[in-house]
Amino acid sequence: MEPDGDQIDALLRLRGVRVTQARRSVFELLSGSALPLSAARIDEMLGNAGRSIDLVTIYRTLETLERCGLITRADRFNEGWRYMVISREHHHMIVCSECGSASPLDVCDLNRIEQSLERTTGFTNIRHSLQFYGICAGCRR
Ligand SMILES: [Zn+2]
Ligand SMILES: [Zn+2]
């Protein structure tokens, strides 16, 4: 479920970020997008929605949101880094390296590896990030 405006404001405040129109708009856009988005794409989408923000502010906003752990860099494409919201549900993405389409996967089998790493390395709170790349069915044709 996508967070509404109030939830987004609350999320930002929870991370110690002052709520601004730019931060709210950018985060809202990323929350509602199934695909990772680049700054250029965000610029374009906000423009289409009549909520233009200048590109420099978009870059700065992305930096802020990334620093406070709300979004992350998903991958790098022609137009640069693409960002996505860090979701609380854990899932990995499979990304087409031709067209950039991304789909979430609902399998993650790495808990066992994390548990054995806890035993062998003494680390606790082990997390992981993992992304798969390939050629999607549409591009293969
Ligand atoms: Zn593709
Ligand atoms: Zn996983």
What's the gist of this structure?
The protein has 141 residues and is α+β, with helices and mostly antiparallel strands.
Please describe what this structure looks like.
The chain folds into two domains: 5-85, Winged helix-like DNA-binding domain superfamily/Winged helix DNA-binding domain (Arc Repressor Mutant, subunit A), CATH 1.10.10; 92-140, Dna Ligase, domain 1, CATH 3.30.1490.190. The longest helix has 13 residues, at 55-67. With 141 residues, the chain is α+β, with helices and mostly antiparallel strands. A hairpin with a 5-residue loop joins strand 4 (92-96) and strand 5. The protein is globular and about 50 Å long. Helices cover 42% and strands 20% of the residues. Helix 3 (39-48) packs across helix 4 (55-67). 18% of the residues are buried. The protein is built from six helices and six strands, in the order H-H-E-H-H-E-E-E-E-H-E-H. A three-stranded antiparallel β-sheet has the order 1-3-2. It has a three-stranded mixed β-sheet with strand order 5-4-6, with no helix packed on it. It binds zinc ion (2 copies). Residues 90, 92, 108, 110, 128, 130 line the site of one zinc ion. The site of one zinc ion has 7 residues, from helix 6.
